[in-house]
Amino acid sequence: MARSVNVTVTGAAGQIGYALLFRIASGQLLGQDTKVRLRLLEIPQAVKAAEGTAMELEDCAFPLLEGIDITDDAKTAFDGVNVALLVGARPRTKGMERGDLLEANGGIFKPQGEAINAGAADDVRVLVVGNPANTNALIAQQHAPDVPAERFTAMTRLDENRAYSQLANKLRVPVTEIKRLVIWGNHSATQYPDLSHAVVGDRPALELVDDQEWVENTFIPTVAKRGAAIIEARGASSAASAANAAINHIHDWVNGTAEGQWASMAVPSDGSYGVPEGLISSFPVVCKDGKYEIVQGLTVNEFSRAKIAATVAELEEERDAVRKLGLI
Ligand code: NDP
Is the confidence at residue 1, as pLDDT, over 70? Predict the structure, then answer.
């Protein structure tokens, strides 16, 4: 018999929520053998819009969808949750300083962390999508002391997917030929998309690219600034690709990464690669039996070391800022 899983999505009435919920309900998040009960969390003003999305979900008559609850109360939303997708966040508005942004998000992710701590299922897995994702995940995690720290993760899979496509376009190969591309650090403009371990078929990607100028001045900035380029072109931020990446992240975590493949996930550091312990930073991981492990023993060259140090420094600054604000 199919098992049943509670999936909570915050910011359910938003753009990403709209692109995400139908894919979850159709079985793409956890597989065709898993039934899903959806819990949608929204702020009071957006509950009505979430109800509209729920009506559309009903109208799809998805065989795996067991039910949908909508609430503006975090405790209710996270009670018994197995998979929590924290999408809703406070966007940066004009004139807003970074401290204001972090404080506003602290007001969202602190109570959500507490609610997860109070009511989540023992196997809860949390993915933070709402920005600043790494630091929002840290805030939530710090307020959920009874949940194993490693269950709190943030999304860098969209950056990884973008990097795969850029490299595939450059080398004119299918993305399926490429493996072991890594995103390090923060989901921000300082992230480091790293080609130094990537292989295309059985050849090192960098050998095929053979153009360090392209890597430094085209590849890395194109991946890091892709979000802004999409806003410029589309007039709205990326939503379907962000939802797709969230599906990929949880699917790999639960069902495992393919043989020989890695995934990039922002996870609490265990001190690997000089990243201070506890920071939620992106690493290459391998997932198996419902758990992830940071890939160990990679050689980090001088260029990579400097790039990783820069993005980790930004994460430390964000952590220090939220500490100063009393949010952690
Ligand atoms: P989106 O659904 O487009 O985005 C939601 C969050 O995801 C934003 O913080 C956004 O960051 C982030 N994000 C991460 N990666 C990406 C990416 N690659 N592309 C785009 N966004 C990305 O926002 P909407 O404004 O459409 O919807 C947000 C919803 O959240 C609203 O319905 C609002 O009511 C709700 N909300 C719910 C809360 C709750 O449940 N307690 C709390 C706060 C808001 P960025 O802004 O940097 O693009």
Answer: no
ipTM: 0.90
Report residue 265 as tokens. Answer: 């996930």
E strand spans, 129-262: 152-154, 178-179, 182-184, 192-194, 199-200, 203-204
Is residue 27 lining ligand 1, measured as CB closer than 6 Å? no
Quote the domain boundaries for residue 132: 5-154
Which secondary-structure segment (H or E) carries 39? strand 34-41
Query: Is 226 annotated to bind ligand?
Result: no
Distance 90 CA to ligand 1 centre (A): 7
Of the chain, the end-to-end C-alpha distance in Å amounts to: 42
130 lines ligand 1 (CB under 6 A): yes
The pTM for the full model equals: 0.97
Environment class of residue 322 by beta-carbon count within 10 Å: exposed (0-12), middle (13-18) or buried (19+)? buried
Task: Please tell me whether residues 33 and 18 are part of one structural domain.
Answer: yes
Q: Are residues 161 and 147 in the same domain?
A: no
DSSP letters for 182-205: EEEB-SSTT-EEE-TT-EETTEEH
